[in-house]
Amino acid sequence: VHPDVLAGKKNGYLYRKAIQRGCHLIAEDCNPWSLFDLCHTVYTVTSQLGFEALLAGLKVVCFGIPFYSGWLLTDDRISNGRCGKKRSLEHVFYCAYIKYCKYINPYTGNLCQIEDTLKIINLQKNTWKDIKVLGMPWVFPSGREIFLKSI
Hints:
This is Capsular polysaccharide biosynthesis protein. With 151 residues, this protein is of the alpha/beta class.
């Protein structure tokens, strides 16, 4: 279930149907990639999660028109007006993440390449491990991570 649906910010198009069909809905905060090993098909309207499922090698059924539909990579339940030419997953990824995106270095404000952005993300992701916080017991590493991510 999309977090915005659970928060009452949006209506879930597939929520009611999933309940009617007895689907197990996961409402907890989790990394969606950890769920991909538990399924073979992802049903979506326009969620980015559908593209991630394609990248993970899963079948994707679209009930909307996300950027990755219409290229014969997904099972599209509505016509989206695209030409229907077959595109590779790599081509769609290239267009979405490299050709049409502009990346900005958060430290300099300058444009940068995707490779630079990935290095920055990796650096930020791993930085908390090297920070020492006076008075915080190191027997609770998960608490340390939560604390450091909050500042």
